[in-house]
């Protein structure tokens, strides 16, 4: 199976990825579809995604291929992500806020709907039932 090389040009790190995993990103899928070269090593520049964030994005996509995420009900039925999605996904987004927001940006840029849904739902769960003052106090990006 093809292994496109997703490259983060900022750091220059290469990430070999199975084609079916790479195609979860609509951005990457479009680039692969435009690439008429039969070369097995297709380099796809992702200048807006840091290497550490891309590593997490790939981890998500690989897991999602084997165990698709339960669709997230809207509005959220709980502020606890473990009650909204499977345990692996709840654990996946249990990260520092800075990384969570970087994952949102990467999911949006790379057009990966399940990851964008999960990360945005996580932010929604962080603010669910909170006052504006509590949100400003607890969400780092509001400071």
Could you characterize what this model shows?
This protein is mainly alpha-helical and 143 residues long. It has a single domain (6-139), classed as Potassium Channel Kv1.1, Chain A (2-Layer Sandwich). 50% of the residues lie in helices and 8% in strands. It has helices spanning 19-22, 26-34, 51-66, 87-92, 97-110, 113-127, 132-138; strands at residues 5-8, 13-16, 43-45. The protein has a 3-stranded mixed β-sheet, covered by helices on one side. Strand 1 and strand 2 form a beta hairpin. Helix 3 (51-66) crosses helix 5 (97-110) and helix 5 runs antiparallel to helix 6 (113-127). The longest helix has 16 residues, at 51-66. The radius of gyration is 16 Å and the shape is elongated. The protein starts with a strand and ends in a 5-residue tail after the last helix. The model has no long low-confidence stretch (mean pLDDT 88). InterPro entries: SKP1 (IPR016897), SKP1-like (IPR001232), SKP1-like_dim_sf (IPR036296), SKP1/BTB/POZ_sf (IPR011333), Skp1_comp_dimer (IPR016072), Skp1_comp_POZ (IPR016073). Residues 113-137 form the SKP1 component dimerisation domain. This is SKP1 component POZ domain-containing protein. Belongs to the SKP1 family. Pfam families: Skp1, Skp1_POZ.
Summarize the structure.
The chain has helices at residues 19-22, 26-34, 51-66, 87-92, 97-110, 113-127, 132-138, and strands at residues 5-8, 13-16, 43-45.
Write the layout of secondary structure elements.
Blueprint: E1 5-8, E2 13-16, H1 19-22, H2 26-34, E3 43-45, H3 51-66, H4 87-92, H5 97-110, H6 113-127, H7 132-138
Parallel strand pairs: 1-3
Antiparallel strand pairs: 1-2
Helix pairs in contact: 3-5, 5-6
């Amino acid at each position: 199976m093809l292994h496109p090389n997703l490259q983060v040009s900022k750091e220059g790190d290469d990430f070999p990825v199975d084609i079916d995993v790479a195609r979860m990103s609509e951005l990457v899928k479009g680039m692969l579809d435009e690439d008429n070269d039969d070369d097995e090593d297709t380099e796809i520049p992702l200048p807006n995604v840091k290497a550490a964030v891309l590593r997490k994005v790939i981890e998500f996509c690989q897991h999602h291929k084997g165990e698709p995420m339960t669709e997230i009900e809207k509005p959220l039925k709980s502020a606890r992500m473990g009650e909204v999605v499977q345990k692996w996904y709840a654990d996946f987004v249990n990260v520092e806020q800075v990384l969570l927001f970087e994952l949102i940006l990467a999911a949006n840029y790379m057009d990966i709907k399940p990851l964008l849904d999960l990360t945005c739902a996580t932010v929604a769960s962080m603010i669910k039932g909170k006052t504006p003052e509590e949100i400003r106090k607890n969400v780092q990006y509001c400071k």
